[in-house]
């Protein structure tokens, strides 16, 4: 008797079978082989033949061992280094490569599907890719410094006269807080500082920040080269140092490290370069290109300076301190100050004064956060619609291949393999879609660069591309996995029998599946309705805003700002002389109708305001003082801006001497103080010295010579709570002012001559920020109009996708119902009747979607209202127009499937039953 | 008996059905299953050890059949297999599948109904 057990043990490789399982296998195989051997002998075979039979049972022992471990993976010993477990085998690279090859071939055969899917995904992912940099900069990472939530902005608030929260404060307030707020470990004061820098021979106006040396410490940022300012450099006499932004360093010095120590001329003064900021860091906006130290003058520290509220005070919370503690300490300071300066008490109380503290990053993005979130939701919505379409396509395609899957399963393929192939195919489509999406996103972003949304990004744009690619790829992979699984659904869930039956009869889609498909289309149509209405409302808002009467004329006016170097224009007379002469020269230029200068360039966003007292006017107790925005203007300003005159006269040569005591007010101030009466000749006083407020003797009085129409100098969307008043420029002769020039011809044609004129008078005086008033108007709305344009883009994409979805579903339904249609035709229905049937179905879906959209808009409309201007979210006109438009497009989408249905050959259908 | 190559794929596909069907009435051990298949198919289908055991183990892994050792005095212990509830369901499914498939193939290939 042969020792079959030994034979088995000798030949069966242990390979990957675990030890105790191996013994069992040996036992069982031995038993089987012995049984065959014995039975063979019993039926008369010779020993040799019987043994031959045994040998023939296992042609290959290694194959058997592999098959055994394949079949029972739990019995397999932990693999040492090879892929032996089934699941690890599934990860084996050869299978994935094969899947990729198979997938590419399948896609190449079905080019229509591939192209449609890639295009759809590309566009939808592109929309998201465009938004991602802004989302990152504004929603996720507005202040890219360590622990940004612990940086706090403190500001003076006057809620009784200002409708929006302020963000600024004064230097003496900062000094108070420096002493008394223990909850902050470090504080800083800063402001914006425009300077003229010689960039390659051209004097260019650039924006910088002037800040106490503590600011970099508050932000916890170190210069990448050189050092931060020392405390000493924050004192007068030592402050001519500068830190450059990385971009400026490269622009001026090509990244040369020996730039440290060299000097740079800023508006006529020499500054020593001490450091360079890290690449990718920017604070205060992308336009800030350099930092200089803030050295407070005695005047700025004085009591008087408490009214120059134009500075930013930030601080970093102490470890363990909370913002609540800061607010309590601020309250204490405010209370203490009211006692220190009792003469201010009535004024401040009537203004409702208090000091606020909020995280800086909240203040930075407050205005843009809303629209951006809305856009992001829209982008995701469009993506969802696109994914629904592609998913449906993939699913339908997969059902057409049921016979292929059935056969493969029948001959032993695993469902898992087929599902994996679906996933790989979906990922292939997604890779192309991601690439397309990133390209689309980058393109849209480039087009968006000029808007305020982009300007708010506290990071240069090239570093964002990595984030865009990563995020888009992430979205793409998620989407693809979803599509792959959806398309593999029949393979996963359907038993083999049903698969074959489906194919054999080729009809009868599951009722549930049909309903899901219909609901999906209705949802898509509803989504596009909401997006279209949203975009439409935004469009109306922008148009309304653009049409707002600002009070002055914006056509044919060019503006620019000028900064006279302090050193060479140290006396007011020098400044006055320059301004007078230059305006004279400018008026002589051909095409110039009127020219003037003002401390405030209209629509530039900057403004200055202060309270007025009127002679003989007694305010009610607790009534807040009448305030107004102050402009100091030369003669010619009103004519240049086209501000209409209501009473009296504009400024002229009589108002040019420094001793002028005339003033022009607007209708609001006139109305406030004198009702309907004539204010000409009456006197008002400005707040010159805080401590003299209320003291009529010490006030500086101005006589009203003219009343002009109220104008919205700050811009269309800026708060418009105050009136305007205008003082003659010569009263103070500020060195920084703006020029306003009205032309008879295209204003851009005189920019060149303008610069030449100024340069001929003083080479170091550069005209900066040159724009026409029309450009400024558009710029002030740029965030809104960009939002609107993007929203419109999304809405149109959503519309197209929904139409495609509708078309797809109808085609599919028609195909499925071919039998029914055939029967109808056979019993007498006309082609028109069939078409009507399909059209009704399609229109029904479209109308269902529209109604759902209407319900959604009615419900969620309130959320939109804060982004709109001059139009209600439930505006019936917009909704009706959109509904009609959508219905028409829906109708067009239904036409082709309807015609196909009408052409169904009844006889063919009956045959196939 | 060697199986010609064309029939190999078919055999692979029907293997499960064949094995499960033998366990319908009572539990059996491996050799018994193979013997019955050969007998009932009049020798047309024969499973050798290398073909049968991977199938048995796979079915056991999937919980479709359950195996246990039976000790008889004086004999080597022997492993028997029986159908589980899931196995009975699977058998019904497989029978359905194969009938439908064969019907479809017949139609498509123009075979006569045997």
Short structural summary:
The complex is a heterodimer of chains A (913) and B (114). Chain A has 913 residues and is of the alpha+beta class.
Walk me through the structure.
The complex is a heterodimer of chains A (913) and B (114). By secondary structure, chain A is an alpha+beta fold. Helix content of chain A is 53%, strand content 15%. In chain A, the strands form 3 sheets. In chain A, strands 1, 2, 3, 4, 5, 6, 7, 8, 9 and 10 form a 10-stranded mixed beta sheet that branches. In chain A, strand 2 (184-199) and strand 3 (202-211) form a beta hairpin. Chain B has 114 residues and is of the alpha+beta class. Helices cover 59% and strands 12% of the residues of chain B. Chain B is built from 4 helices and 3 strands. In chain B, helix 1 packs antiparallel against helix 4 (85-109). The longest helix of chain B has 25 residues, at 85-109. Chain B starts with a helix and ends in a 5-residue tail after the last helix. The model of chain B is unreliable at 1-5 (pLDDT under 50).
Draw up the topology in text.
The complex is a heterodimer of chains A (913) and B (114).
Chain A: H1 4-11, H2 19-42, H3 47-57, H4 61-71, H5 86-90, H6 93-109, H7 111-140, E1 151-157, H8 171-180, E2 184-199, E3 202-211, H9 214-219, E4 225-226, E5 241-244, H10 246-253, E6 263-266, E7 269-276, E8 288-293, H11 298-301, E9 312-317, H12 323-340, H13 345-351, E10 354-359, H14 360-400, H15 402-410, H16 415-448, H17 452-455, H18 464-487, H19 489-493, H20 496-505, H21 511-546, E11 557-563, H22 572-588, E12 592-598, E13 609-614, E14 626-633, H23 637-641, E15 645-648, E16 662-666, H24 667-674, E17 683-686, E18 700-708, E19 723-728, E20 736-743, H25 751-761, E21 767-772, H26 773-780, H27 782-816, H28 818-826, H29 831-864, H30 876-902, H31 906-912
Parallel strand pairs in A: 3-8, 5-7, 14-19, 16-18
Antiparallel strand pairs in A: 1-9, 1-10, 2-3, 2-9, 4-7, 5-8, 6-7, 11-20, 11-21, 12-20, 13-14, 13-17, 15-18, 16-19, 17-18
Helix pairs in contact in A: 1-2, 2-3, 6-16, 7-14, 7-16, 7-18, 14-18, 14-21, 14-27, 15-20, 16-18, 21-27, 21-29, 21-30, 22-25, 27-29, 27-30, 28-31, 29-30
Chain B: H1 5-22, E1 28-29, H2 30-40, H3 49-61, E2 65-70, E3 78-83, H4 85-109
Antiparallel strand pairs in B: 1-3, 2-3
Helix pairs in contact in B: 1-4
């Amino acid at each position: 008797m042969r020792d079959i057990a030994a034979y088995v043990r000798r030949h069966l490789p242990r390979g990957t079978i675990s030890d105790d399982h191996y013994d069992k296998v040996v036992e069982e195989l031995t038993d089987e082989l012995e049984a065959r051997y014995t039975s063979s002998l019993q039926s008369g075979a010779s020993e040799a033949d019987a043994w031959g039979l045994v040998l023939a049972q296992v042609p290959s022992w290694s194959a058997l061992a592999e098959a055994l471990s394949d079949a029972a993976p739990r019995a397999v010993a932990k693999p040492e280094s090879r892929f032996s477990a089934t699941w690890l085998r599934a990860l084996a690279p050869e299978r994935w490569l094969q899947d990729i090859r198979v997938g590419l071939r399948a896609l190449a055969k079905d080019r229509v599907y591939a192209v449609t899917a890639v295009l759809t995904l590309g566009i939808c992912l592109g929309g998201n890719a465009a938004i991602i940099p802004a989302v990152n900069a504004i929603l996720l990472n507005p202040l890219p410094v360590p622990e940004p939530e612990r940086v706090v902005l403190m500001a003076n608030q006057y809620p009784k006269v200002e409708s929006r929260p302020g963000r600024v404060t004064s230097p003496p307030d900062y000094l108070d807080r420096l002493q008394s707020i223990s909850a902050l470990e470090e504080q800083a004061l800063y402001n914006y500082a425009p300077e003229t820098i010689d960039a390659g021979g051209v004097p260019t106006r650039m924006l910088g920040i002037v800040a106490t040396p503590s600011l970099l410490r508050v932000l916890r940022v170190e210069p990448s080269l050189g050092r931060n300012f020392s405390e000493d450099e924050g004192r007068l006499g030592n402050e001519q140092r500068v830190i450059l932004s990385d971009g400026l360093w490269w622009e001026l010095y090509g990244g040369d490290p020996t730039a440290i120590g060299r000097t740079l001329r800023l508006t006529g003064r020499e500054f020593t370069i001490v450091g360079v900021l890290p690449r990718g860091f920017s604070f205060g906006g992308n336009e800030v290109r350099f930092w200089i130290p803030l050295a407070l003058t005695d005047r700025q520290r004085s009591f008087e300076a408490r009214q120059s509220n134009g500075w930013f005070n930030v601080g970093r919370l102490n470890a363990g301190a909370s913002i609540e503690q800061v607010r309590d300490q601020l309250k204490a300071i405010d209370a203490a100050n009211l006692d220190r300066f009792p003469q201010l008490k009535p004024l401040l109380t009537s203004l409702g004064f208090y000091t606020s503290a909020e995280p800086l990053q909240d203040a930075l993005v407050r205005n843009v956060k809303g629209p951006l979130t809305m856009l992001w939701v829209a982008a995701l919505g469009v993506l969802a619609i696109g994914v629904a379409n592609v998913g449906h396509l993939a699913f339908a395609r997969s059902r057409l291949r049921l016979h292929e899957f059935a056969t493969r399963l029948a001959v032993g393929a695993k469902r898992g393999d087929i599902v994996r192939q679906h996933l790989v195919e979906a990922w292939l489509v997604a890779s192309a879609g991601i690439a397309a999406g990133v390209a689309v996103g980058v393109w849209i972003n480039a087009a968006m660069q000029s808007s305020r949304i982009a300007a708010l990004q506290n990071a240069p744009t090239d570093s964002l591309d990595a984030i865009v690619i990563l995020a888009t790829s992430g979205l793409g992979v998620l989407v693809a996995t979803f599509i792959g699984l959806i398309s593999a659904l029949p393979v996963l869930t359907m038993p083999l029998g049903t698969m074959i039956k489906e194919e054999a009869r080729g009809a009868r889609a599951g009722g549930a599946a049909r309903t899901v498909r219909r609901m999906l289309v209705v949802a898509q149509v509803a989504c596009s309705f909401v997006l279209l209405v949203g975009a439409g409302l935004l469009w109306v808002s922008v148009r309304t805003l653009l049409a707002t009467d600002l009070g002055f004329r914006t056509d044919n006016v060019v503006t620019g700002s000028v900064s006279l170097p302090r050193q060479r224009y140290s006396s007011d007379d020098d400044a006055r002389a320059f301004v007078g002469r230059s305006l004279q020269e400018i008026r002589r230029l051909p095409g110039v109708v009127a020219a003037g200068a003002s401390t405030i360039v209209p629509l530039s966003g900057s403004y200055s305001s202060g309270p007025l007292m009127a002679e003989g006017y007694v305010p009610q107790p607790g009534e807040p003082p009448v305030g107004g925005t102050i402009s100091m203007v030369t003669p010619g300003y009103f004519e240049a801006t086209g501000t209409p005159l209501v009473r009296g006269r504009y400024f002229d040569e009589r108002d040019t001497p420094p001793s002028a005591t005339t003033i022009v007010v607007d209708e609001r101030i006139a109305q406030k103080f004198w009702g309907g009466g004539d204010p000409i000749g009456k006197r008002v006083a400005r707040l010159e010295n805080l401590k003299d407020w209320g003291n009529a003797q010490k006030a500086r009085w101005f006589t009203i010579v003219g009343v002009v129409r109220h104008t919205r100098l700050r811009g269309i969307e800026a708060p418009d709570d105050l009136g305007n008043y205008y003082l003659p420029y010569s009263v103070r002769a500020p060195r920084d002012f703006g020029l306003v020039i009205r032309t008879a011809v295209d204003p851009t044609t005189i920019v060149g001559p303008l610069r030449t004129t100024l340069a001929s008078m003083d080479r170091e005086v550069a005209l900066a920020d040159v724009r026409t008033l029309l450009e400024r108007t558009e710029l002030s709305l740029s965030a809104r109009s960009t939002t609107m344009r993007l929203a419109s883009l999304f809405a149109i994409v959503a519309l197209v996708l929904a139409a495609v979805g509708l078309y797809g579903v109808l085609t599919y339904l028609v195909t499925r119902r071919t039998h029914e249609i055939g029967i109808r035709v056979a019993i007498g229905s006309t082609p028109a009747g069939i078409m009507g049937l399909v059209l009704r179905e399609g229109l029904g879906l479209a109308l269902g979607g529209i109604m759902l959209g209407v319900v959604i808009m009615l419900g969620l409309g309130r959320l939109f209202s804060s982004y709109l201007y001059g139009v209600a979210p439930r505006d019936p006109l917009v909704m009706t127009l959109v509904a009609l438009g959508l219905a028409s497009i829906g109708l067009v989408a239904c036409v082709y499937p309807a015609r196909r249905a009408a052409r169904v050959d009844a006889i063919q259908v009956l045959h196939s039953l | 008996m060697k199986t010609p190559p064309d029939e190999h794929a078919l055999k692979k596909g029907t293997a499960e059905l064949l094995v499960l069907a033998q366990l319908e009435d009572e539990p059996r051990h491996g050799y018994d299953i193979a013997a019955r298949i050969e007998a009932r198919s009049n020798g047309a289908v024969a499973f050798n050890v290398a073909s049968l055991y991977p199938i048995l183990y796979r079915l056991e892994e999937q919980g479709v059949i359950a195996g246990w050792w039976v000790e008889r005095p004086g004999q080597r212990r022997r492993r028997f297999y029986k159908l589980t509830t899931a196995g009975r369901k699977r058998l019904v499914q497989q029978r359905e599948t194969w009938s439908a498939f064969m019907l479809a193939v017949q139609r498509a290939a123009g075979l006569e109904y045997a």
